[in-house]
Amino acid sequence: MAKPYALDLHERVVAQAMAGATVRSAAKTFGVSESSVVKWSQRYRATASAAAKPIGGRRHFVLAGQRVWLLERIALDPSATPRRLPAELAERGTEASDVAVWDFARDEGLGFKKTRRCPASKIALTSPGAERAGSGSAQTRSPPAGVHR
């Protein structure tokens, strides 16, 4: 990633723009883009500083205020999925994506995985269509005539 321009350049460009120079002339004088002049000037008017924004680092965690509720919710129902929790958070007034829930789980040392209590084979055997499929497993049934494996 590119490094930001030096603070003294930001300050000189903003000073010229605030003194009444046009955006294009200030950009041409200092060899920067017009959009940089506009953004730096806007930042100076908003914060009284033309300093560049910080690069990198971790952004504010969206679910920090919901930590206690989330941990209680997951403890109450361990089968809660990270796709269902954002909808429940939205009902509580916190907009979050399933990625935010995954990040929360990772940071807390939690995981959302299938458990031995409900393996895929059990789900298939207890599904409504399982009784109609006939008895016996796929390994014990003979293949249809003309099919070679």
**Hey, roughly how much beta strand do the residues contain?**
under 5%
Low-confidence stretches: 121-138
Rounded to an integer, what's the Rg over CA atoms? 30 Å
Helix content: 40-55%
Using brief descriptors, characterize the structure shown:
single chain; 149 residues; mainly alpha
Structure write-up:
There is one protein chain. The chain has 149 residues and is an all-alpha fold. Among the domains are: 7-47; 64-108. The protein is 46% helix and 0% strand. It has seven helices and no strands. The chain has helices at residues 7-18, 23-30, 34-47, 67-76, 85-91, 98-108, 120-126. α1 runs antiparallel to α2 (23-30) and α1 (7-18) packs across α3. The longest helix has 14 residues, at 34-47. It is elongated. The two termini are 55 Å apart. The model is unreliable at 121-138 (pLDDT under 50).
Architecture blueprint of SSEs:
Elements (H helix, E strand, L loop, with lengths): L6 H12 L4 H8 L3 H14 L19 H10 L8 H7 L6 H11 L11 H7 L23
Helix pairs in contact: 1-2, 1-3, 2-3
Short précis:
With 149 residues, the protein is mostly helical. 46% of the residues lie in helices and 0% in strands.
